[in-house]
Amino acid sequence: MEKFSEQPLRGDDHHWSDLPQILPLGDCALLVRFGQSLDEAANSAALAFATRMQSDSIDGVSEVVPSLVSVLVRYNPMIIGPVRLAGELGLRLISDNAPETARVQHVAVRFDGPDLDEVAALLGLSREAFVAAHNRSGLRVLTTGFAPGFVYCGFHDSALNVPRRELVKPRVPAGSVLFAAGQTAITATEVPTGWHVIGHTDFRNFDVDQNPPTRLRAGDQLIFEVVS
Question: How many helices (H) and strands (E) does the chain have?
Answer without folding.
Answer: 4, 13
